[in-house]
Amino acid sequence: MSRNSTWWLAPHVSNCVKKNAWAMKQMLQxxxxxxxxxxxxxWNMFRQAFANQIVVxxxxxxxxxxxxxxxxxxxxxxxxxxxxxxxxxxxAYNLSTRLLVTPHFSxxxxxxxxxxxxxxxxxxxxxNYPEIVAMFQNEKDRFDFQKPNSGYVGIGILKNxxxxxxxxxxxxxxxxxxxxxxxxxxxxxxxxxxxSMFIKGQLAYTDGGAKPGYLxxxxxxxxxxxxxxxxxxxxxPYGKPSEAQYPAGFLNKVAASIL
Length: 259
Prior knowledge:
Shape: elongated
Radius of gyration: 22 Å
Mean pLDDT: 90
Number of helices: 10
Order of helices and strands: EHHEHEHEEEHHEEHHEHEEH
Strand content: 15-25%
């Protein structure tokens, strides 16, 4: 893919990340254009292991107020990259992968379009717009109202997102302005980053002609699906095994130089 695959990373134990470096070796092999880190725990692990390769200005907070949601907001507003540039035994290796933290995929509710407020901010909002809050609390068929004893208040929109937002705006433009500052639509935010990368040429699309098209495979050789030890039934549709491969053990040395 000319910088185009995505790879999903759930939390790994330190054995996979540092001791055996499986996570790093998979990144070096697949060369993803985008890496979605699932949940704050994954980000903490990744940041602790590979801090020297993470490029973002200004630095992201070590303790984000609203966990993965804060990180999702910040990493959609400013680009965060995992970057490697090294030469091993005279062979150059370069990788630049966009990073984005998402809420955890295990719970559908995490990806419901929603308003999120700190307890203090919610108390102020409730004081200013009690009828809007009453709507959130009482209309359980449209809203998933979550007010934990500690942590952020979440108000999920269960259906008819556009209609709900229009209704709130009709009731109070001021309330709408406050709510849209704390509005999250994780799927749309993820898609916006991918769209931005495509526009900038960091992702590309291959027209399949009579067959379905696909995201263009990242640059660089690969023999994971078709090699001397095994071949997946459909092999490699990108023709990667026919490219000049890295010297034996090269990617292991790259991983070792990072760790």
